[in-house]
Structure formats: structure tokens, C-alpha cells
Amino acid sequence: MKNIFFALVLIVLIPQSSNAQCNPEEFTNQCIPILADGYNFLKGYKIDGRGGEKTKVEYSYVFTKGTQYMINICSPEETPGIVINLFDSKRNRVATSSMEGQILKAIQFPCNATGIYYISYTFEGSQLYCGGSALGFSK
Amino acid sequence: MKKYVVTALVVMLWACDTKKEPSKDDFKEELDEMAESPVEISDENIINILNSVPSPLEISFIIHDAGIVYDKTLLNSENNVSKYTSNNKKAINLGVYGTDLGYTDIYEQNQHGLLYLGVIKELADDLGIGQFFDFQLIRDLTEKSKNIDSLLLVTNENFNKINNHFQEQNRSSLSSMLLFGGWVESLHLTCQVTMQHMDSDELVERIGEQKIILENMMILMDVYGSQDTFIRGLADKLKDLQKAYEGVEITYTYEESTSKIVDGVLVIQNNSSSNVNITPEKVKEIAALTAQLRKEITG
Cα torsion at A75, A79, A80, A81 (round to 10°)? Predict the structure, then answer.
């Protein structure tokens, strides 16, 4: 009986504790100083997939024509398992960090059309569903 | 939950009513009624709009990189700070001075930067958010002008923290005021320098593109204006600007991107493009209306 009780306690607590370990702000703060040289920081984005409950985390930002943007990813996992997808205002995908089976930790996007862009983070092979990201710009 | 006017639902209901052939007058009546019936917009969407507003720093860089000479007279005087007594005015002008600080930083005008830092501290303390602004660090970085990147980084981080704090404390209307003030000041700066450099296609185009941000600003003003008479007044004034922007046409062509990996970074070759159609007369009209609006919020 005792064992069943402990098993139940573990089942209930383990997912919560793994989610509680996610501190996306920590990873966002890690990402800001590692934006490539020449890029000025704009925004930090927290990525918390709540232990797998969420399949994507999305933000939006108005990009300006003639400006280069960089979006990077920081995660507690060696391979991030978090893909950056960038969509234009009409929801056409204009960039993804997943290429030829690799997930890159940063993308560089030269904006040719001012407008709202959706920065969407999805999880591919991530165990922790947790990370941070920074957006920077360069003229 | 916030309210915002949308039309789709009533259009659908009207379209589904097949009992009689609707006349043009019936349709107009329905549309008029729709304009009066508020529909909900989620807090999450409001926060998304707030966070999508671009940093005024981007425009200041464009002005700087266009080779335009620094002009302090374009900025809001630091002496005006004593005029701002309500929280709305303090938040708006915190945004205005934030844009001005970024502008002085980019041009490495340290002494002016320190003046703006002083008034920002005053307004932030009055609004109870002084703890999110690391004044000593920013002051140190301003005095050592070689650290321009660090200065911009810390300043921008601090403003982001203030924004987040307002949102977390259910003071999102102040967040919208902060962003609104910053945006109006950066549009005013762009308009004023463009009036002297009408041959700069880049600057003219940037003014036209503000139509996109104006649309989002209108949403915020409508949402918060329903709860606050001061913001409602701003929304009414913003409508004049919106009307002027009706004559600005933005076209967008999507083409699939290509990409390659360079030093572990995915470098995108963006093949989409956009074009802004705006006349010199329209630039002048927008500049005049923006100056009027800016006078209203900084006066």
C-alpha cells in the first residue's frame, strides 16, 4: 500500500518538478551577450513548453526593411531541441533553424519587407522543453 | 477582458439571414450597429501587440546611418519634466525621453544623455519602477562613451523590464503609454529629419511603413481608451493620423527564402520584398500631424 502511495506521489510530482526546473529567464539572459558582434539587443524571449504540454511558444515583432536580425537559442540541453521558425504577417514561413537534419542555434535574417513577423519556437527531440532566446538587430 | 470592435461575426449573421433579400440600406444599418458593438480581444493578444512594437533605437540608427547630423532641438526638453503630473503623462514621456536617450547615445552625446538619464530617473521613481533602471551603471557607461554597445544593451534591457513589470502588475495601460510615447517621438524625429532630406528614399519609406505600427497603436488606444478618458482623447487624435495614412499604400510580395549555414549560423537569403507608395505631400501632412500629436503629449 505504502509503495503504491509513493508511486502515485512520484507520478504526480515528477512532471511538476521537471517543469519547475525550467527557468527560461536564465537562458534568455545567457543568450543576450552571445548575439553576434555588431548586433544590438532588442528583445529576450522565454521558451517554456511546460514539460511538453505546449507544442510551440510564439512571439511577434515588427521587423524593419533594410535591417538584419539575429535570433539565437540557449537551452540546458547539449542539442537544443528547439527550432526557431519565422513567419511573415501572412503566415508564410520565411526562415527555420532546422536544416538538413540539423537544428542550428542561431538564424540571421535580412528583412526586405517591414511588417509583423511571428517568431515561433517548436520542440523537436527536446527532453526539457525549456530555453531562452534573444533577438538582435544590425544596420 | 478587453473589448475591441470587429465586424466578421455580424457580417456572417447578416449573410446567413436568407428570409429576405437585404437592401443596401439594411446592410449599412448592420455595419453601423457593428461599429457600436464591442467584441472581446484577449489579454494575451494585447500583450502580444505590446511586445511587438519595435524599439525606437532602430529608427535612431537609421537616422544616424543616413549621415544626418545630430540635432538636440528635435528632442523633448528635459526641462518639461515638471509638467508631467499624471501617471499617463509620466509613462508617455518616459517613453519619449527613452527614445531621446537612445538618440543621444547613438550620436555619443554624453552630456545630453546624462540630462535625459536624470529625467528618466525622476519619472521612473515617480511611477514606482525606479528599481528596474540601473542608473549608476548607465551613468558609468554613458561617461565612458566607448561602451556604446553595452550602454544600449543595458538601457534596452531596463526598458524591457519596466514593460514586463507593468504587464505583470496589471498596469498594461501604462505599458501602452510608454510604448506610445516612444513611438510618437521616434516618428516625430524621423519626420523632422526627412523634411530636410526629402531625397532620402529610405527615410520616406520608413515613415510610410509606420502605418503598420499605427494600426497596432490604434488597437491599444481603443482598448485602453474604453477605460480611461485621457487615452480616449489620444485615440481621437490618432484617428487624424490614421486618416492621413489611408493614402499610403504598402505592397508585399512573398518569395520563398533560401538559406546556407555559415559558422554555425543559418544565414537566410530573403527573397520577399515590399514597396511603399507615399507622396512628398503625404510625408508633410504626416509630419505636421505627428508634430501636433507630439506637442500634445509633451506639452
Answer: -140
